[in-house]
Amino acid sequence: MGPYILRRVLATIPVMGVVAVIVFLMLRLSPGDPAAILAGDQATMADIAAIRERLGLDQPLLHQFVVWVGELLTGDLGKSIYLNRPVTGLILERVEPTLALSISTMIFAILFAVPMGVVAAWRAGSWVDQTIMGLSVLAFSVPVFLIGYGLVIGFALRLDLLPVQGFVSLWDNPVGFARHLVLPTMTLGLVYMALLARITRATMLDVLNEDFIRTARAKGLAEPRVLILHALKNASVPIVTTIGLGIALLIGGVVVTESVFAIPGIGRLTIEAVLQRDYPVIQGVILAVAGVYVLVNLAIDLTYSALDPRIRF
Amino acid sequence: MSRITRRIGLAAAAVFGLIAAQPVAAQTSRRDTLRVAVHANLQILDPVWTTGLITLRHGYLIYDTLYGMNSQFEPRPQMVDHHTLSDDRLLWTFTLRDGLAFHDGQPVRAADVVASLRRWMQRDPMGQRLSEFSSAIEAVDDKTFSIRLRERYGLVLETLAKGTGTFIMPERVASTPSNTQITDTTGSGPFIFQRDEWRPGSRVVYRRNPAYQPREEPADFLSGGKRALVERVEWLYIPDNNTALAALNAGEIDYYEAPPLDFIPLMERNPDIKLEMIDPLGSQLLLRANWLYPPFNDVRARQALALVARQEDYMRVVVGNPRLYQAWCGAFFQCGSSNDTDVGSEPYRQPNTARARELLRQAGYNGERIVVLQPSDRPQYNAATMVLIQGLRRAGVNVDVQSMDWSTLLSRRARRDPPDAGGYHLFITGQGGVDTANPTANTWFNSRCDRANPGWACDMELDGMVADWARETDPAARRPLLERLHRRAWETFPYLSIGQFTQPVAVRSNIHGVLPAGQPVYWNIEKR
User: Fold this and answer.
1) Is A123 near chain B, with CB under 8 Å?
2) How far, CA to CA in Å, does B252 sit from each of B121, B243, B298?
3) Pair (B508, B423) in one structural domain
4) What gap in Å lies between CA A208 and CA A205, rounded to an integer?
5) Is A224 on the interface with B (CB under 8 A)?
6) In the CATH scheme, what is the homologous superfamily, with its name and number, of domain A88-307?
7) Nearest CB to B199: which of A43, A264, A275?
8) Do B407 and A260 touch (CB under 8 A)?
9) Which of A57, A85, A165, A266 to mutate to test the interface with B (most CBs of B within 10 A)?
10) How many domains does chain B have?
11) Which member of A139, A172, A268, B223 lies 3.0 to 4.6 Å from B70 by CB, making a disulfide possible if both were Cys?
12) Which of B174, B206, B222 lies at the terminal end of a domain, its last residue?
């Protein structure tokens, strides 16, 4: 296992290198000039040229790339063009809201989706199955922002139970933290839950038709035991894979959800940076997200052997 | 399993109940805190370095100005107690009022003022013009400074009262080169910036400056006593307008700085929300042609632009609500301002497609592709661009609409390349505030060729007329000069105004004292 982990970790280095090159080139070759945006609507051409020079954007592309990679190798992601602050610090400031939203969404989705998928498979073809799958299709089809607005109208404006927007740190006010997370979690979690419920159902249906399930039932095992210990455990590898792949979906969803609920997380930071062409921030965020994604995939791969002893690395 | 499910269900219900049982009022703002949904994310703290509106508003909170415009658009002393003018009208001497102090407790000295003015004059167009007319700006003693002019200049006080802020900073801060952002936010204004509570992209916090001594006079536009009546102002950046509206409805915010105009009917129906008109002049939408390339390097083609659609066509689409726009405003310097005139606009008050077509033909236009930049993420500019496109097509123009986000448009419009090589012919933008009303401060009116804004309007004769107007010190004699330059502008079109409209702010009904100051300011506001 040890050499395998080391190999996988080392393999992330070229992956991150390729990501770095692609991100750098895509940003520089796409239209938009941070100097013009930074200078403002009333700026003169001389103002814009002066800013471009100060930011080093007038230098050849190769020179800019070498400078950036040089900084990167020392662990420096650069400084935000607009805020004039280190990108690493900006990302760290925004980690808590995004991490909190992602974790609560995962927990919410897994807690509801897996039992729903199991029940739907167990009662395949019945009204229960059809209802669960119908709702899943609906949740998966409705845009995230629409779900968000609907929940805000229902829970915040009509029932006056939860706040409309914002984020409170767990360390400042745990109850406020939870209150501000409920609606965003439900908004983002519904989509993720729908995906997971459908995958769980499909995988469980396959497993429930296996001989060993018939044997378990013939032995007289209670149905919950058959479903959870025998069927679900054997269906868990594809489910865990979907959970892992779902993190990419989650990253996209976080961007929208954070905007709808005015949560100052990584998603919002990314949008703002893209709209303003804040190159160092965009590059830093994408590299960080790519790194997290690679590590999550590694973690998912490692859980396979725990779930299925036949898998060995 | 059902027992387990029931237990889990009960536990979840208990947790949700606990969370939801917390009073929502705990989340709403306290009586001493004004919570504002601002229109943009404050990122740059230096109001001299950038022309961004959000930074200007930040400036008005933490800095004070030497003069301020009143509601009649007259300069009134603010930090200045009084001034004297020499008989030859070349030496202006100003004395600061008593009790002025920076947030760090240090007194405001004339040396701070001189350093601040010098830095500002390097960046601001109106400041640059005053600089051109002056030979020395000096501190006489700790409370007195002087401006010595090379020749008479009629806009000294107007320049110091300029809406886009002659903010006074400590000398040590104002010594920062004007092309470098300041990092020290020490001012002497009615509020103090709380750096440790600043969360870029989310929240900016200001506290009342307990040492601030407002003027005795009542607050009037950007002049008079700036009395901070709340302890704390919190700016919240809520990028989604629907969420901001919901937050205002729920009482989570008190003040919504720039609600979309199509929200107005919704807000008018809510008794807990008031709409306040804070900008008597409003904003101006404008069409800018690229003077570098045919056909718009020919004045006749620019004149044709004024005939393809009427202002009301633009405003009906952009604004919608007739109470918020003027059906026709022929003034380059804002209808309702002290420089309001529509002299020269007579031939262009009604659209005339046939005439536009003829003018274009005379300008040598023969069906070539006309590149129009369309900012898809700026609803007002986007809508106005669509009206323009329709008008151009009616006049037989072969329009090439290039849709892009605003950031791309800003960089694209700065390119001087030919339109078929990455350049452009036309784009729409806007400007607002008191500065638009002044020919020397209206940056899109600047027709100094290569030194003009993108589009590079080039009419040095017009620029000379502006200088003549600025030089004149007698207000009565200045009027004919204004009309002369205005007539010239309607002939050569540095830009085309396509309408004037106003943007209300929305506040909760318990908010009182919102000042019509041309922009949101947060003194004088009380929360009952």
Assistant:
1) no
2) 41, 11, 54
3) no
4) 5
5) yes
6) MetI-like (1.10.3720.10)
7) A264
8) no
9) A165
10) 3
11) B223
12) B174
pLDDT per residue, tens digit, chain A (313 aa), is 778 778 877 888 888 889 888 988 888 888 777 887 777 766 677 778 888 888 888 888 888 888 888 888 888 888 898 888 899 999 999 999 999 999 999 999 999 999 999 999 999 889 999 999 999 999 888 998 999 999 999 999 999 999 999 999 999 999 999 999 999 999 999 988 998 999 999 999 999 988 998 898 898 888 888 888 888 888 888 888 888 877 777 877 888 899 999 999 999 999 889 888 888 999 999 998 888 888 888 888 888 777 776 766 6
Q: Considering the domain boundaries, does residue B184 fall inside one?
A: no
Indicate the residue of A38, A161, A268 with minimum beta-carbon distance to B20.
Answer: A161
Is the CB of A161 inside 8 Å of chain B's CB atoms? Answer: yes
Q: What is the CATH number of the domain that holds B213?
A: 3.40.190.10
Residue B222 lies in a domain: yes
Closest approach of B80 to chain A, Cα-based (Å): 28
List the domain boundaries for chain A.
2-73, 88-307
Q: How high is the ipTM of this complex? A: 0.81
Q: Are B101 and B107 in contact (CB under 8 A)?
A: yes
Distance, in angstroms, between A81 CA and closest chain B CA? 10
Cross-chain residue pair A262–B239, CB shorter than 8 Å: yes
**Which chain B residues are within 8 Å of A31, Cβ to Cβ?**
404, 408, 411-412
| Shared-domain flag, residues B8 and B40 | yes
Q: Are residues B319 and B426 in the same domain?
A: yes
* B242:A224 CB<8 A: no
On whether both B451 and B359 belong to a single domain, the answer is: yes
Is A230 within 8 Å of chain B by CB?
no
The token duo for A215 is 């044997």
Q: Is B43 exposed, middle or buried (0-12, 13-18, 19+ CB in 10 A)?
A: buried
Report which residue type is found at B124: D
Q: Looking at the structure, tell me whether residues B482 and B429 fall in a common domain.
A: yes
- Do residues B132 and B237 share a domain? no
Residue pLDDT, tens place only, B326-371: 999 999 999 999 999 999 999 999 999 999 999 999 999 999 999 9
Contact yes or no for A249/A190 (Cβ under 8 A): no
Side by side, the strands of the sheet bearing B496-501 are: B398-404, B369-375, B426-432, B283-289, B496-501
Residues in chain A: 313
The runs of H, that is alpha helices, within A30-125 are: 34-39, 45-55, 61-73, 87-122
Q: How far is A206 from chain B, CA to nearest CA, in Å?
A: 22
Q: Is A293 on the interface with B (CB under 8 A)?
A: no
